[in-house]
Structure formats: structure tokens, C-alpha cells
UniProtKB/TrEMBL annotation, chains A, B, C:
The keyword RNA-binding does not apply. It comes from Gadus morhua (Atlantic cod). The gene is p2rx3b. One of its GO terms (biological process) is response to ATP. ATP binds at residues 64-66, 175, 282-284, 302. This is P2X purinoceptor. Signal peptide: none annotated. Belongs to the P2X receptor family.
Length: 364, 364, 364
């Protein structure tokens, strides 16, 4: 038993011979250098392995669109063309409208291919080309002087959605005001996209600009679309989705001014461009009214819109003892190990391992 | 000093004896094999450690519901039963309505337990069972021939929300059209869920199907609910939340066709099923009208709906030198280290370490 | 060749001498102890390295606000003050309104700085201080007895948004009911924030409370705001965004009761507080009406609101063989390696490496 305890605290080292081989010696050192370089250059400087990182950023976005447009000789303001209205991180600016006024529940000819009355199982049925998305009554009725179409039941008159209309050009000059606050819960660090350097008068006048005003929180729609490499008129015609990305890459060891937002812009529904199937972005909604006698009627609106998604992502790092230690130990260990391995390799039977191995261990 | 420099470039290796012990020798090799197997099989092939991964996928989702239903002898179309209307990644299809028409600000008996006039501190007070969510006036008034209830102030008449109504059966046959574009910013790789193999005519006719049409972007509500292992009628009655998950697992080393969406479906508010407390999903909203004299009145709607959340997640990998190198070095090192350790272990005093250790190092 | 095979299975170990140096011996053991401590204490117990983790939690949130307020002598209920109405994870409770009734398309003086008629290039132009966000007609017209302002075209009368109004005090006592189901797809584990311990009667009566009712899913607005260290009246006046965070930290090895939600509250738009530029949160929307003759008119509403974002994050761990093995091997290896390195270090030329190195390897 006693021998065990002594054993336990005796120190046992390997007997070693010193070979005065410069070649191998140099290789040995070079490999060690490489490793040290790797750890210092990549692990520590580039990857910042001495920091703890927080990527679960808490963010809140508020948006406000400003500007006035004229559409069908009516002045449109925010309440008319922005939806949803809450000014959250996702919102649509309507650029084009196809409105069908005064729809009431009833019967009317559908807006579709001409039809003909045919007798099916001894009864008249309205027959038309593929076009059965409404509830048909089976009658073939007069649509206009030139043609008859199948009669349907529903909100009448039916929408004529192939009318060509021009989008609202003024949208290009509308401005989007973005207020974004973030918080890194791990470090309890809070910041907003109104940098301390920004004052009221600046905001009331500035316009975002990649070069001169990269921290101005007001974005001209036209600019945003341009930065996303899109053509405004095309987009306004068909509609689409634009992503406004706010990235917060923060090195909290380097003071507050090294934590500021960087904006970038992409078209999110990129597929729509190079795809003929259902290009663009549009949706339908209705405004409901009541006649004095209580019957409902509505205005159906097919809206072509540019949707903006404000996407916030963040990544903050701060010095911390634990990762630093772990990585330093790792570094030193590997330096030691390698030179050890080499010793081992040289002493190993040559034929056992593939050449790749020798290279990897820097020996040969 | 000079000796140092020479030292620096001399190479020092451990003196070693070759023991012709087959047992230990075999163990030694087996352990090495295991390690190699682990690195090749798990780290490289399974975990694809030679790739850099991008999991921060940018995605945009557009949805469009199609179909017509009949509810209370009225034909309902998209604008009537889908909310919010913007066709974003989260939308509700209303299946059941409890409408309270022509509410005006005023006084009326609440819809609740019968009440009695009691004298509290020498004044009449309306007394009823627990039911105080409205603003009471303190009077006990006639509700109908059979009972009296407390009078309240607010939008009158008060909603009677215990009426039994049937959900809109047609919803089962509605179709959801999903357009999803994704982008992996790290590789600037963009793709959409309309695969090149899909053409216009196919889309206009297809219906998603796990087996034959797994890339068709049109989903029948009934199918979706079935895939989520739910019963349509139950869901339509109580309402609920269904998740449509689109997963993009892309190996960008293997060409474009190895990056395609895979759809899956779950019920997100699973809790609601096996929980009696407030099952299902419903919400209230109002449509506002004005009389000629300017007084407001509204139609209060309690809507039971099926909410669909389209959740997109992605994960793309692409070959990259740095991780490959790091992992290869790691592999070779550990192979070397182990055989070294063994040597060491055998030469170590036996009693110092637990048996587990011997096993772990493959020696004994 | 044969020699190779024999070589392959022969076992080669390092010749070693046993130095009876207690100092180094003790250091050697201490270092080993440190490593073992690190692996057991930090890697296994603290970091739970023996588990696989799932952080991609699937979540669905339903919310319902209850309560009645009085604003401008009108009783407001959910349908009046909550928007959007769908009861999703983000919703606003309107606390203050500035309504502009009966707006019609037309011409009217803008609500702005007084103006003067000036002659520009031989024609009269309305000249006023900076205030050009509307579409001007160029005339300077009577606004009220005291001043004239530029005439504009649009929805008239123009909004007067500097009227002071009091927020709806009752909001403080409104309650938010939150239903949250989560699922960890990796383990197919589903749970909801109605714990089994909660029954119907409890829910109908309880109110969330950090101490006594930490699992009650009903939150008093006033409490939430207090927990977020905010002042209700200030918030109700200017508006703001409150985050309700639900964290699911689950150790699935320790049974169902060790997986329960923990609620926390912060102000998300923290920036707004200490920033004079556009504090708070407000937005505009309109209700549209029609006269008998078909002309549209609307009620423009500028709403100050408290927005609530329910943010869910989860992290579940469960025992798994692979990570356990990997980490155990890592542990044992490093123990071995270190004692090896030491042996090596002591035998190394002293001058080659920095002292830090000696320390790191625990030798000297």
C-alpha cells in the first residue's frame, strides 16, 4: 500500500536521446510555428475565441411611412396605402389597386370564358372552358353585348381583374422611418439605431445613404429598391417583397461606438423575378358597408403591394475567462503534442500508416 | 547562447523499446481503427465536418387561399374568411362565426346568470352570480320573459356567444397556395419552392401529396389537417393552429437538385387537444358603420378559425478548406496520441487510476 | 513484407525512468486533478455535455385581452382597443386616440405654421415655414380667426394631432391571457403553459405573480408593466413596446415537472426612454364609410398603444450516448496527454519556449 502512495507521487518521465538532426529539428519547429500561428491568428484574433458570444438578440422594430400619392384622382395617405397599419417590422405599401365597388350578395355572370347552354342528362347546363372557382348556378347568361358567361352566385358584380392600371408613382419618394432597439440579454446591453451622434434636426432632414448617411434611420423607398438591385416601376407593377436587414455586430470589449447597425437590402422573393408562375405580390381585401335597410355591401380591393420585412440580427462578444483559458490550454497542449508525436512517428514502423499521415504530422 | 540556437534546431526523440506483444499490439491497432472509423464515419461522412454551414436562412413567404364557402346562406370568399388579408406566413381561415349585428353604445341586460335586486347599504344593487366583466349600472332588468339580468353599459345588445352554429364545411376543400423563396446569405444561394421541374400547367392542376406531388406548392386544407393527424370537423368547430413547416436541407456540393424543400405538418397548439381549459382558437373583431345622423354602430364578430403558421428553416453546407484541415489534423493527432498514451499507460504505476481509465485508453 | 506485418502488430512503448521527485510528482497529479475537475464540474455537470440539445423549439402563441375601458364617454371593449384582432403573439392595446371624424377628399388649410402670399416668378405662392408633407395647392387660406395656413389637397379636414388627451386608465387593470404550446421536434416532446397542476377554477381566478402564481397564464397589464420597470401612465401616454418572454429550459432526463415555463418582462423599445427623438409608439389607421350618394368618407385615428410581443425560446437536453462517449474520451485523453507532456517538457531544451508555456503545462 505504501509503495502505492510513493508511486502516486513519484514522477515518471521518458528517457530521451537528443538527435542533432537539423532537417527534422527545423520541420519540428516549423510545425509548432504553424500551430501557434493558427491559434493566435485564426482562433484568437479572427474567431475571437477569448469572448463569450450572445446571438439571441432581443429586438423591437417600429416603422412609419410618410408621403402622399395620387391614385384615381384621390390623394392617398398612410392610412390608405399602408397595411397592416400597426407600424411593425412587416408592412406593405400598396402601389396599385383594382377596386370593385358596391358588391352585394346575388347572382351575376362570371368574368370568364364565353359559355353555351348544353343539355346534360336531359337538363340545361352552362358549359364553359375551365373556370369553375365560383359557385355556378348552371345558367348561361348575358355578360355583355359580345358574349354570354356562366352565371354564378356570390358577391356581385364579379371582379374584373385583368384591367390594366398604372401604379402610384409617388411611392418612389415615400420615406420609411425605422426605429429599432436591440438588447443582448447575456450582457444586458441595450442600444438603438438612433446613435448618440444623431440629433433631432439631423433626423428631420437626412435620408439614408450607404456612403454619407449610413446611420440615418429614414429610407427613401426608391433608394431601398435600388440598393436591392430592383427596378421600381417593375416592382410597383407586379409587387414584391424587399428585405431591410439590420445587422448588429458588436465587440463590447471595444466600447460603445464599436456597436452600431449596418443596413443591407435584398429582394426576398427573388424567385418571383426569374419565374413566370405567379410573379409579384398581391392580395385581396374588402371594406364593408351597410345600406339603410341593413343589407351589406362591400368594396373588394385587389391590391398590388411592395412588402417590406425588417430583419434584425445581432452578435455580440465580450471577454470572458473561461473560453480564454480553455483555448490557451488547447493551444499549448497541441504545440506540445505535435512535437511529441513527431518523436513518436520517427520511431514508428514506417509501413503502418499512409503517407498523408506523415505529411499531416509534418514528419518525413 | 549559441548552444541554445543549436538546441533549438536539434531534434529530440524518446528512446523506445519494441515489445513483441501481439495482444497489446492488436488492441493498440484496434483502438486506432476505432478512432479512424469515428472520424471518417461520424465526423466526416455523417456530420459533414468538411463543410461550412449556413443556418441563418433568409426567407419570404406568400400565401393565397382559394375557395368559396356558404355560411348563413351567404357566399363567402377570400376577403370574407381570411384574416389578416396580406397573405403573409401567418393567416387564419375563419370556419365559424357568431355575429352580433347593429350594436350601439347604450344600456342593456347582460347575457349572464339571472339577478335579483338586493339592498346594500340602503340602496338597491343588482346581485348576480360571478359575471362582472362588463361595466354594471347596478340595476336588475328584464332580459327575456323567463329571467332578469344585471344591466350593463357598453355596446348593446350584448353578444350571446353560446349559440350553437355549424362550421363552414367547404373549408376542407379550400386550397392554400404557398410561395416561398429562400436565400443562404453566406453562399449567396437563392432558391424557391417552385422547382425548375414545375411548369404553369402543372401548378394550375396539382395538389400537394406526400407521395406523388411532394413539390406541388398547392395544399388542400383537408389534406394539411389530415397530415397533422387532426380531425377536420373537430378543428373547424373549436379552431386551432396548424404549422406548415418547410425544411431546406441543402448540400451545395452536390448540385442544385439536392436542395429542395420538404414539407411537414403539425398541430402547433397541441396542448389544446388534451386540455379542457379554453380549447381551440377564436377571436373577436368588429366592423364599424355610421348612421346618417353620424352615430356609430358595429357588427361584433366572434370568429372561430384555423390559423396556419408557415415556418421555414434551412441548413446549407458547402466544402471549405479551414474546417476540413482542422478536423483532419484533429483526426491524425488523436490517432497518434492514443498509441502514445497506451505506451505511457502500460508504463504507469497501476494503482493510481480507476479501471474506467484503463478501458478508455484501451489498455489492460 | 512479413516483417511489416509483424511490425504492425508488435507494440512499441517508450523506455522510461522513474524519478522519485515529489515536487514534480505532486504538480503532475495536481494538474491532472484540475483537468478532471474541469471535465466533471464544468463540462459534464454545468454544461451537461452528456446530453443532445434541441434549441429549435416550435411554438404557438394565442393571446386574449379582457377588460373594459371608458374613453370619451364610450365604453371600449376588446374589439375596439386591441389590434391586430387575431390574438397572435404580437398585439397592441390602444391607450389613447386622436380621431378626426368625417374626412372627405377635398381642399382645406393644413394644420401648420401661418403662411403668407408671396409672389414667386410672377405668380402668387403660399409661403410658410418648413411644412411640406402634404400636397399644396399654393393658396394661403383662412385656418381660423387668428391665422392663415397653406391650402392642401387630400382628406379634409386635416388632422390636428397636437390636442392633449388623457389615456384610458382602465388599461392598467386589463388582463392578458396567454396560451403557449411548445414542441421540441428532436425529442418529439410537447408541452403547454397550462401545467397539469392548473385547473379551470384556478385559471378563472388567478393573476400572474412572480412569487405565488408563477405559472398562472393570466397577466394584469399593470403588473407586466411594473415587472418591466416601467411607469404605466408614462407608457400609456407615449406608447411603447413590452416584451413578454417565455423561456422553456428543459432537462428531459429529469421528468416532466422539470420542464416548465419561466416568464420575464422587458421594455423592448428601451431606446425610446432615454431618447428625445420620437419617443413612444403610435400609428394611424382609418375607418371607411359611404354616404348614400356613394362618396367615401373616413374617420382617421391616430392611436397611441402599448404593443406586447410574446417571445418564446426553449432549450431541451436529453442523455445521448454519442456526446457522452466523445467527451469522456476527450477527458481521459487530456489527463493522459498532460502527464505525458510534462515528462516531455522536463526533458526539453529550456530556452526554446516562453515561460507562459511552462506555466500552462504545470511544469517548472
Amino acid at each position: 500500500m505504501w509503495s502505492c502512495i510513493t508511486d502516486f507521487f513519484t514522477y515518471e518521465t521518458t528517457k530521451s536521446v537528443v538527435v542533432k538532426s537539423w532537417t527534422i529539428g527545423i520541420i519540428n519547429r516549423v510545425v509548432q510555428l504553424l500551430i501557434i500561428a493558427y491559434f493566435i491568428g485564426w482562433v484568437f484574433v479572427h474567431e475571437k475565441a477569448y469572448q463569450v458570444r450572445d446571438t439571441a438578440v432581443e429586438s423591437s422594430v417600429m416603422t412609419k411611412v410618410k408621403g402622399f400619392g395620387i391614385y384615381n384622382n384621390r390623394v392617398m395617405d398612410v392610412a390608405d396605402y399602408v397595411t397592416p397599419t400597426q407600424g411593425a417590422s412587416v408592412f406593405c405599401i400598396i402601389t396599385k389597386l383594382i377596386t370593385t365597388e358596391n358588391q352585394v350578395q346575388g347572382f351575376c355572370p362570371e368574368v370568364c370564358f364565353p359559355c353555351a347552354d348544353v343539355v346534360l342528362s336531359s337538363q340545361l347546363v352552362c358549359h364553359a372552358a375551365f373556370c369553375t372557382n365560383w359557385i355556378p348556378t348552371g345558367k348561361c347568361v348575358r355578360f355583355n353585348d359580345t358574349m354570354k358567361t356562366c352565371q354564378i352566385q356570390g358577391w356581385c358584380p364579379a371582379e374584373i381583374d385583368y384591367i390594366k392600371t398604372e401604379p402610384m408613382k409617388e411611392v418612389e419618394n415615400f420615406t420609411i422611418f425605422i426605429k429599432n432597439s436591440i438588447r443582448f440579454p447575456l450582457f444586458d446591453y441595450t442600444k438603438g439605431n438612433f446613435l448618440p451622434t444623431i440629433n433631432k434636426s439631423y433626423i428631420s432632414s437626412c435620408n439614408f445613404d450607404m456612403v454619407h448617411h449610413k446611420y440615418c434611420p429614414i429610407f427613401r423607398v426608391g433608394d431601398v429598391i435600388q440598393y436591392a438591385q430592383q427596378d421600381f416601376m417593375k416592382l410597383a407593377h407586379k409587387g414584391g417583397v424587399i428585405g431591410i436587414k439590420i445587422a448588429w455586430m458588436c465587440d463590447l470589449d471595444r466600447g460603445d461606438e464599436h456597436c452600431s447597425p449596418s443596413y443591407s437590402f435584398t429582394r426576398l422573393d427573388a424567385m418571383s423575378q426569374n419565374n413566370s408562375i405567379s410573379p409579384g405580390y398581391n392580395f385581396r381585401f374588402a371594406k364593408y358597408y351597410k345600406m339603410d335597410n341593413g343589407t351589406d355591401y362591400r368594396t373588394l380591393v385587389k391590391a398590388f403591394a411592395i412588402r417590406f420585412d425588417v430583419l434584425v440580427n445581432g452578435n455580440a462578444g465580450k471577454f470572458n475567462m473561461i473560453p480564454t483559458l480553455i483555448n490557451m490550454v488547447a493551444a499549448f497542449t497541441s504545440v506540445g503534442v505535435v512535437s511529441l508525436l513527431q518523436g513518436h512517428m520517427t520511431a514508428m514502423p514506417r509501413c503502418t500508416l499512409p503517407t498523408a499521415f506523415w505529411l499531416a504530422t509534418g514528419d518525413m
